[in-house]
Amino acid sequence: MPLLDLATVKAQLNIRDSDNSQDSALTVYINAATLVVERHTGETTSPAEFTETLQLPGPVYTAHHPVTAITSAVDRNGDTVDAGSLSFDALTITGSGVYGPVTVTYQAGYVTAPANYELAGMIIVQHLWESKRGNMPTTTPSLDGGDGMIVPRTAFGFAVPRKALELLGAESALGFA
Questions:
Q1: 142, part of any domain
Q2: Alpha-helix residue ranges (DSSP H) falling in the chain
Q3: Whole-model pTM?
Q4: Which of 5, 50, 105, 139 is the most buried (most CB within 10 A)?
Q5: For residue 1, is it within any domain?
Q6: Helices (DSSP H) in 20-147: which residue ranges?
Q7: Residues 6+ apart with CB under 8 A from 177
Q8: Domain residues for 157?
Q9: Distance between CA atoms of 6 and 19, rounded to whole angstroms?
Q10: 86 lies in a domain?
Q11: Overall number of domains in the chain
């Protein structure tokens, strides 16, 4: 599931809800923004079910998090593993008295994503949409104090605005400690 819904994005971009002419393009942007947020946070933004083979007893870090439930588990012989012998936290699954490879099906993701993830997603979608639509570049007055010439200032050199990265806690990825 995408991080943002189409109606919310259309409202942010001042597109009438009844105007469906851009829906397929907007959906691509929403899905791309969702993947960017998930890449930068390392978290699954919407609830989903995943299956992994884990080497227990663990704790073993899962590929998707936050883990919210364990649905089922099967050992290497195809026998069902007692749910009471498995525990989890947001990042790991642990087995108690369970050894070896166990195929675990679990749920991960947020029912409601954190507000900073949603806002970062909106900023990313809006930035990408504006660059597609030609609403950029903006202009700023000349800094030379000269004849008031307008110098174009573009933001086309990046796909993810810094403010979105900061909302996702990615300051260290930008070279700041």
A1: yes
A2: 6-12, 23-41, 115-133, 162-167
A3: 0.75
A4: 50
A5: no
A6: 23-41, 115-133
A7: 171
A8: 6-43+112-174
A9: 12
A10: yes
A11: 2
Distance of CA 20 to the CA centre of its chain: 25
Q: Which amino acid is at 5?
A: D
Q: What is the amino acid identity at position 39?
A: R
Q: Which amino acid is at 119?
A: L
Assigned token pair, 145: 């104090």
Say if residue 104 is in the same domain as residue 116: no
Paired tokens of 117? 């993830």
Residues 100, 55, single domain; the answer is yes
Task: State how far Cα 146 lies from the chain centre.
Answer: 45
Structure tokens at 69: 């439930």
Residue 32 and residue 59 in one domain:
no
Per-residue pLDDT reduced to its tens digit, 21-55: 999 999 999 999 999 999 999 999 999 999 999 99
Phi, psi (degrees; rounded to nearest 5) at 73: -150, 140
Tokens representing residue 30 in the block: 């929403």
